[in-house]
Amino acid sequence: MKQYYAIKAVHPDAILLFRVGDFYETFGDDAIKASGILGITLTRRANGSATYVELAGFPYHAIDTYLPKLVRAGERVAICEQLEDPKLVKGLVRRGVIELVTPGVVLGDNILANKENTYLASVYFGRRNTGVSFLDISTGEFYVAEGSDAYVDKLISNLQPKEIIYQRGCEDRFSDAFGPKHYTYRLDEWVFAEEVNREKLCKQFGTRSLKGFGVDHLSSGISAAGAILYYLEFTEHRRTGHIASISRLDQNDCVWVDKFTIRNLELFSSNGSAGQGGFAAVIDRTLTPMGGRLLKRWIAMPLLDPARIGRRLDVVERFTQDLDLADAVREQVAMVGDLERIGSRIAAARVTPRELVQLKNSLTAVETLKALLESTDDDRLHELASRIDVLSAVRDRIAREVYPDPLNNQIQKGGVIADGVDAELDDLRRIALHGKDVLSQIQQRESELTGIPSLKISYNNVFGYYIEVRNAHRDKVPETWIRKQTLANAERYITAELKEYEDKILGAEEKMLVIEQRIYNDLMQYVAASLPVLLRDAASVARIDCLQSFARIACERRYVRPVLDEGRRIEIRQGRHPVIETTLPVGEEYIPNDVVLDDTEQQIMMITGPNMSGKSALLRQTALIILMAQMGSFVPAQSARIGVVDKIFTRVGASDNISQGESTFMVEMLESASILNNISDRSIVLLDEIGRGTSTYDGISIAWAMVEYLHNHPSARAKTLFATHYHELNEMEQMCPRVKNYHVSVKEVDNTIVFLRKLERGGTEHSFGIHVARMAGMPPSIVSRAKEILRNLELVYGSSEIVPSRSPKDRSRRSSHSVKEAVEAADRTQGMQLSMFQLDDPVLVQIRDQIRGLDIDSLTPIEALNKLNEIKKITGI
After folding, report:
1. Nearest to 864 by CA among 802, 815, 808
2. Which residues, in sequence order, are CB contacts of 429 under 8 Å at separation 6+?
3. Whether the Cβ atoms of residue 143 and residue 134 lie closer than 8 Å to each other
4. Nearest partner of 345 among 335, 336, 334, 354, judged by Cα
5. pTM score of the predicted model
6. CATH hierarchy code of domain 563-766
7. Per residue in 444-468, pLDDT tens?
8. Which of 90, 217, 511, 852 pairs with 808 at a CA distance of 20 to 30 A?
């Protein structure tokens, strides 16, 4: 226990799995925590004469079952192994932590998700700006960037790291900048020292400077990236040969897609499905884990350069035109394993025999894939092929030295190295496999030479293999035989040949394992020397996989190639929502719509229409079509011409943040403020139901002011789709020349509405909310009562909407007059409604007294609203 506590003191914040014989044990608080997470029994054991300590453990061979549960529960796990063979040690066995597994530092396939990166992020708050770095140790992908806190927050939202490290003492700034929902670990300030980390990175990449990676000037970024390498050492991950380069994430290369947009567009998960579904899952037709991970990065970071986008689109178009080529490419891509993670496991000396076989098979498929691309007359495909090195020498050596189907997936158990690789190994295998046959041959030979027909060879633990001769034939025993034991009816002898063979048989298994391990280690070192090339191949295959995925979905769903340019116009004809159209019932077609935006004539489309008519879907589909186009994918439309967009902002759907004390309206305003403070001339803004979380007049005022701001901005005419229930905003078309009114049409038949979901020019004044309530299954009595109230309101106000006049004086007069009419109407109908109340109802008396004391003609609008609010409070509604 002293040994345990000494090791635990080094990793106090991790659950320590302490190897004791055939078990991993946990003690004390770790045992209490582990038993709860893993569902294993919690016991107690004596710890000295007067104390006890909690204990919980599991068999060592079950670690692949239990370790993932601990890590997914957000725990850091230190694995402490026996570093000596207990059979060879007297006293206490030396133990030590061989690996610290954290949510962001994971190599085990049983924890990692196939098509998802597991990034560890590092954030450094510098004097001028903030540095950030991302590393997926399971693939070797290493990125660095620096900029404002907002830009770093965007990158964190895009890449979704599982763990973030940052300097101690910056807790408040981190929480303010990035929120409280991240798994974090703090390190001392000295870990982020720039000069030390610059040297550390150069040593990692085997270079004298970082200029070749284009990151030499990123001082804060270098501080963050070097801290990641320190953290790997701290967590006992020192074999990092697969981390061979680092890439800069430049905000001028990619579209700005912030965390609000990622959530509102449901890019990676469906907001109502607990992390499942989403846009990425719907369009993913990749065939390899590498391709799936790359696709998510392309979604999170669409391109800004039309030329780069065009190169992707060229390949997609070729695959859509040449279906035979596309099928042949898919067949080979599907045979490629996860080269990135195999490479990381080779670097860490943890690759399994079957993974090596998978690597060999993958390289065979990669060679065929390269030949396929080279056989075409397409320069773009030739360019992709030129990036592939088939590593034939690596493939051939694996094929020569490893069985095609190894008996075991652990080299420690043997049965991995092929025949013909090592003569001694082959000889030992013959001995081990055919030992009885050899002994039988020796027995037959000696029987014939000596003339002893009853001679037999046997074995015991005292002196091993021996020859037993009955006393009747004792005189025929050769002099070279050595007598070892005399029995009543026989004698037992050994020979030099028998002892030699005995040594071979008894030591064969152990020697075979040693030889196989040596050959396997040599093979891993040989393959590790080609890791940089292997990782480049992996990147090439992932890219081809993504492009064939785009082509496949384009053929399946009738997507078209978009045209991208440096212009300021977005013109989408007959656009469709890529997710919703896949969920429609069989036989039902998605209703397409046109969207045209520019900065001269139609900058802002004001879209009104009933609930459930499709306004939000139209907004989302526009954003997704633009995002898909700038990823390099074909799009769900009849045609699309897009002037590249640099930022996509959305405020769609209602949400709150109760844990932080933020209401739905507060969250709406925070997101809206973020949009308005970051728009540019190439931005597209999608706003849905702004202001609905507050009172009608407040909501209309805020929405009106936001539209004016977007329209009148001196330098950034952000193209905007504004969906609203406030039909009063249709008046803005008369005041702002680049605001145009549209509505999503419906048809009313026999008191029932039919959603036509077609976008048409002009505004509308009907919301059909009561119809939607009835469709949702609202009790008939409520629907009937709502209709009655609506009729009374329309009698009082002249329509179902409260329409503010452009003139404040007129608005004041109208509001006072409307309130007066409402009160008089209430008085007239009071007699009919009294049956609802007791005549002595104190609430009714209070309301009557409030109304009786009003001088309606002199009421200002704000006084009228305040009085109504007082009456509302009296009723308790």
Report:
1. 815
2. 419, 508, 512
3. yes
4. 354
5. 0.82
6. 3.40.50.300
7. 998 999 999 989 988 887 878 899 9
8. 852
